[in-house]
Fold each of these.
Amino acid sequence: MRIDLREQVAIVTGASRGIGRAIARALAEAGAKVVLSSRRAENLAPVVEEIRALGGEALAVPAHTGRMAEVERLVEETVKAFGRVDILVNNAATNPHFGPTLEADEGQWQKILEVNLLGYWRMAKAVVPVMRAQGRGKILNIASVAGLRPSPGMGLYGISKAGVIMLTQLLALELAPDRIQVNAIAPGVIRTRFSELLWSTPEIAERILRATPQGRFGEPEDVARLALFLVSPAADFITGAVYVVDGGLSLTGGLA
Ligand SMILES: NC(=O)c1ccc[n+]([C@@H]2O[C@H](COP(=O)([O-])OP(=O)(O)OC[C@H]3O[C@@H](n4cnc5c(N)ncnc54)[C@H](OP(=O)(O)O)[C@@H]3O)[C@@H](O)[C@H]2O)c1
């Protein structure tokens, strides 16, 4: 099966590094015009260069997904540059709190919900009118295995990701008549800056690897390959689904 995304326009949030960068590259390699977003333009510039060097088309539009005005501007700039939006990959997330859930403070709750949950909702809200007018679209939300089962120490984050999964299912239902498919990927531990504490602290890393049947951490490309399929026409009959990419970690008890 060849995935051809020529003539399609994609927005990827959190595209300056890690999983978002790998997804943006994979979409560009399949021919999509990719709008890369994150908070800081200087973080996006090298990824734009990388994609252009591969012969792809990419544009950087910085936006903080916690702010509606910036999210709306991101969608407006995309339409201005490329005339449409076929694909939204909601990927930008944060985790300001590790530790027991009741030890978090309200500021940490607000930050995590603003970005991880409302940020995905804001992006969908801004993009759906464009997709509706086109008569089709794909939204892919990057969730986490921490949103499927409790991961002690990562309670706020897990709750925000459980919210992302419910948001995915609700939007899938609500947007099916508009021919917009909404799916989620729930990664396990993928080697990025975000999860560095988990894979670079020897005691934690060893425990996770013991609990992972495949005996390795994931790489951003492990997620990107599935993302490419889910936003492509090959997945037109798939909506409201949540795919785990974790080397089997959640079969043995997850991060608990
Ligand atoms: N790595 C894992 O093990 C793992 C596991 C499960 C799920 N995930 C999920 O996968 C996604 C990507 O994570 P990652 O590991 O690739 O993280 P990462 O390497 O830390 O990248 C995070 C990206 O998000 C951007 N970002 C952060 N806050 C933002 C905001 N408020 N507005 C816009 N952009 C923002 C960052 O760029 P700037 O700093 O320039 O804004 C960066 O591009 C997240 O949804 C994460 O929850 C990761």
Amino acid sequence: MALHHRVCHLCEAMCGLVIEHDGAGHIGAIRGDEGDAFSRGHLCPKAYGLKDIHEDPDRLRVPQRRVGGPDDARWEPIGWDEALDEVAHRLGEVQREHGRDAVAFYQGNPTVHNYAGALFGQVFSRALGSKSRYSATSVDQLPHMLAALEMFGHQLYLPIPDIDRTDLFVVLGGNPLVSNGSLMTAPDMRGRLKSLRERGGRLIVIDPRRTETAALADEHHFIRPGTDALLLAALAHVIVTSGQARLGALAAHTDGLEALIAAVAPFTPAAVAPHVGMTAAAIEALAHTIARARSAALYGRVGVSTQSFGALACWLLYALSVVTGNLDRPGGSMFTRPA
Ligand code: SF4
């Protein structure tokens, strides 16, 4: 058996795979790659299922062209060159006849986690020149990107929770135990949360639902759906009015603190409590816990961003990281370095 080292593209975790195969297309086994820096040998059941997909007799192995009329339509196999030529020709025809935007382009899982797909998808999209471009981003993370653009100057400056070093991991509207770390690429979340506990760290989950991650948390606060922005404004209010704001190294790069203080002034714990569904005392205690933690990684995902006040909630989440000095420091939420 020969070994192939590959990456599972089925989700953002992009776990490293070791594939045993006989050189003739038959897979003996798939296991996690212990040497992969991200996944460290972790795999979920979907990766083991790749063998079934690969060997499924119904899997398409060559391009197919639909031929015949409405009554005798059928598929016939054609070669790759012929298929690519035909698609390029027909796309050109559609655009010439109906305009460039008449061809829409969508990228989602697993293409966006495939290096070639990510690279050439952009080239293809530019060549199409169509404004009709879509991806899973639209229903997932655009509010995070808008908040990053407004606060940090670029939509892809997305701070990543430093989960492996933090003392306090706060999760809002996310379920990393199931997603394996959406927008942070952190496979083996169960192992990482176990390590957090073993080094004395704590996990707090804020979510209307008792998620798998919430079931493991030290604290789980149920809040009403869509009230994250109110809660975050109140947390910021408590921290800045109790003299616990500490920008640290960020002070030289931060402006608008006075504007933030003024903006969150009306959002006292008592004012938001009836809407959020937490008591004012619990909101205050949570703010103090975050402010006093040696380091805190504040992480919000789809539940925070995909709602009426999603962009505001994401912006406030980043602002909370800033006022507690947890932005771009070890154990907080950090910017990645370009690969
Ligand atoms: S978590 Fe599962 S689906 Fe996602 S990359 Fe890893 S093995 Fe693949």
